[in-house]
Amino acid sequence: MSRARAAWSLWTLAMAMLVSGLALSAASGAPVDGIFSYVAVFPITASLGALIFARVPRNPIGWIFLGTGLLGGLSAVLAGNADSALLAGAGSSGLGHTCAWITRALWAPTTLAPVTFALLLFPDGRLPTRRWRFLLWFAGVGIVALSIFVGLSTENESWRGEDNPRVEDPAGPLIAVLGALSAAVVPAVIGAVAAVIVRFRRSHGEERQQLKWLAYGGGVAAVVLLVLGIGFDEGGVWVGVVIGAALSLIPISISIAILRHRLYDIDVVINRTLVYAGLTATLAGMCLGLVLLFQLALSPLTEDSDLAIAGSTLAVAALFRPVRARIQATVDQRFYRARYDAARTLQRFGARLRDQVELEALTADLRSVVANTMHPARVSVWLRDPEAPR
Are 262 and 210 in contact (CB under 8 A)? Predict the structure, then answer.
């Protein structure tokens, strides 16, 4: 069996486990708040892992993503069995408790392992230098210890709101040792982030574009999760969907970078994101401010707020283009200085071109503009002889 076929066979197994586990959970009437993270994250991660391995078999990130999908499918199966035994009352409750504990224990390898190992090995599948190898050991030991620690923990006594009998308290020294070893996860994760920063500072060309994709996906995911954590105290189905979609941005951006699909489009994506995020925030603030202002101004005449809303909407619509142009110029000036300077040079050249009549002066200006905007190795201007036959 070829490696690609083996990868897609494992992907099929992961999808089968995921579907069967979700079916068991749905049949038992389990809460669906957390199910959509399974639906979004693990199928996407497993699919991208199989695709990376089929295209770039020497990059271990493909196997990391595929293994994450397999662990996610196994976790879904165990959670489905726990739901069937503990919620629906089907099967042995002892088996349900065991499945529930193992599901909790799989939290660390399904979340921390892919993030840590992928960041350390991104984008070429190798560590920045051999001196970073100790972080791989830190991550492996810490994740295994954390998994066992969570599995033996006596603090989680319920499963989806149903009481779970407390396990026998393990020996105190064992828990202390596992807790100490679990702490190795912290320097491993911090070191993985530091490895990406070090790579970015040393990178150029294609590698820098790859790292930009990772930074973009991770940054957007972090902002979404931060907003959800601050603004929403209670979860829901749509919150689970948004969380799953946000977390999926990280493997998606990593896969785009590794497969180098439209690699250089990241500059345009970042530019548009900055512009339209700033535009949305600015217009939303202006709309709210105008509504309050119109309501205060129109309150002596009418108590209806429809006029205030209509007036603020028209004002925001009229300000859309100038505000967008201003934000675009600010973003270009701050983050894309070379392109901003090139555009300003072309604008000044266009203004001089309307008043310039001397050919030699025009040619000198044209050479200067091309040299300042495109930075070629050599600039020359060829003029066709007007008396030459056509």
Answer: no
Cα separation, 211 vs 217, whole angstroms: 10
Residue 272's CB is within 10 A of a number of other CB atoms, namely: 12
Phi and psi dihedrals of 184, rounded to 5?
-65, -15
What gap in Å lies between CA 254 and CA 61, rounded to an integer? 9
Q: Which residue has the tokens 């586990």?
A: 21
* Mean pLDDT lowest among 25-34, 259-268, 274-283: 25-34
Per-position b or e across 20-47, b if 16+ CB within 10 A of its CB: ebbebbeebebeebebbbbbbbbbbbbb
CA distance 363 to 369: 10
Structure tokens at 188: 């491993």
What is the helix (H) or strand (E) element at residue 162, kind and residue range? strand 162-163
Query: How far is residue 93 from each of residues 90, 97, 158, 163, 226, measured CA to CA in Å?
Result: 8, 6, 13, 11, 37
Angle at which helix 337-353 crosses helix 306-335, to 10 degrees, equals 100
Q: Is 130 exposed, middle or buried (0-12, 13-18, 19+ CB in 10 A)?
A: exposed
Residue pair 120/135 in contact by the 8 Å Cβ criterion: yes
Beta bridge partners of 162: 159
Distance set, CA 366 to CA 81, 350, 355, 363, 377 (Å) = 73, 10, 14, 5, 15
| Band of residue 230 on the pLDDT scale cut at 50, 70, 90 | low
Tokens representing 316? 């925001």
> Is the preceding peptide bond at 60 cis, omega within 30 degrees of 0?
no
Mean pLDDT of the chain: 77
- Hey, CA dihedral for 336, 340, 341, 343, is it positive or negative? positive
Per-residue pLDDT at 207 exceeds 80: yes
Report the Cα 30 to chain-centroid distance in Å. 28
Which secondary structure element, helix H or strand E, spans residue 159, and what is its range? strand 158-159
Contact between residue 196 and residue 211 where contact means Cβ atoms under 8 Å apart:
yes
Coil, strand or helix at 224: helix
